[in-house]
Amino acid sequence: MRTTIAPALLALCIAATLPACRNDTPQALGTLEYDRITLPSPAAEKIVAIDVREGQRVKAGQSLLRLELDRTRSSTDVARAEAQRQRASLQELEAGPRSEQIAQARAQLVAAQAEERQARDYYTRVRPLGRQQLIAAAEVERARASVDNAAATARAQAEALRELEAGTRREQIAQGEAALAASEAQAAAQQVTLDKLTVVAPRDALVDSIPYKLGDQAPVGQPLAILLVGGAPYARVYVPETIRANVKVGDAARVFVGGQKESRPGTVRMIRTEPSFTPYYALIGKDAARLSYVAEITLTSGDAASLPPGLPVRVEFGK
Questions:
Q1: Rounded to the nearest 5°, which phi and psi values hold at 252?
Q2: Cα separations (Å) of 119 from 130, 143, 155, 215?
Q3: What is the residue range of the signal peptide feature (predicted)?
Q4: pLDDT for the residue 11
Q5: First vs last Cα of the chain: how many Å apart?
Q6: Which of 88, 194, 239, 281 has the most beta carbons within 10 angstroms of its beta carbon?
């Protein structure tokens, strides 16, 4: 059966569409958005508590969820112990040799010098006998070798004593300071990771999403919570290429939210220089085949804070 439309009804439809066709005011479509903050997982640990729910408003510093602490706490304790060991090692280097070590080195030097004198005296006695061939020449050579060996031992003991009396070299102290700094930095990094296992809101926000559930173990870097921040949403729209040259940061705009007839005042706060293809929900007739430019419009009306994100908007530019 063919359906016919009464002439009067057809005329009414045409009259209703003509104003929209004649509307040459520059406009763009988009949605209401908030700035988003993603809080990634600092460690692959199990979620042991979720303190908020999606859609809840939170204050800065408020706990959102908590991860299991045992393994990271143990690693932090190990890092602290290593830093303490390096600190004690540096203090030992700065203090230098103990007085007992110096005294021991002096006693060893005295003993070595005594052995040298004894060897030299023996050599002095056997050398004439060797010239008279009263003893074997090999015995004389052994005596001279004993003198050289005892003298070398005495010199080594003297140098060891001088090293102890000079104290620790400044290069060794510098190495100890560097090792301590590295271990303290490692301990501080572990402490930061431990603190992050209690995920808190960095600023006042609205909890948009908590992707993981109680007991899940999110991989490192995966989002644990997504927050919406800002006192009020802004309009994120796609400016057609045909009017891009006429839209600048700071320009006034009229924002129509969710099909409402009344507009809200706004100001262009950002418009990108790189174009993108128009998304499916921002098509306006022939603009479907054209490029568009992402722009953000700040809503300046007092009731903007009560608007939920995600609502479709239409923005008109110009006076």
A1: -80, 150
A2: 16, 7, 15, 81
A3: 1-22
A4: 34
A5: 50
A6: 239
Both structure tokens of 112: 């070595």
In the numeric block, the tokens 């290593």 are attached to: 82
Residue 284 above 80 pLDDT?
no
Task: Grade residue 224 by pLDDT with cuts at 50, 70 and 90.
Answer: very high
At residue 274, what is the residue type? E
Mean pLDDT within 72-89: 94
Sign of CA dihedral 73, 37, 204, 210: negative
Average pLDDT, the chain: 84
Report the alpha-carbon distance of residue 50 to residue 84 in Å, rounded.
35
Residue 228, SS3? strand
**Cα dihedral 41, 68, 217, 200 sign:** negative
State how beta strands 276-277 and 312-317 pair: unpaired
Residue 158, burial from CB neighbour count under 10 angstroms (0-12, 13-18, 19+): middle
Three-state secondary structure call for residue 112: helix
> Which helix (H) or strand (E) covers residue 64, if one does?
strand 63-67
Residues in Cβ contact with 200 at an 8 Å cutoff, skipping those fewer than 6 apart? 61, 62, 63, 64
Strand duo 205-209 + 252-257: pairing = unpaired
Residue type, 48: V
C-alpha 60: how far from its chain's center?
Answer: 20
Q: CA–CA separation, 239 vs 245, rounded Å?
A: 10
- Token pair 């644990």 is at which residue? 224
Distances in whole angstroms, Cα of residue 164 to Cα of each of 129, 161, 167, 204, 230:
43, 5, 5, 62, 66
Q: Which residue has the tokens 């003297």?
A: 158
Please report where in the chains the tokens 């600092």 appear, as a residue: 42
Distance of alpha carbon 64 from alpha carbon 61, whole angstroms = 9
- Judge contact between 167 and 96, C-beta under 8 A: yes
Dihedral, 45, 50, 55, 57 alpha carbons, nearest 10: -100
| Domains of the chain and CATH, by start | 25-67+207-317 (2.40.30.170), 97-167 (1.10.287)
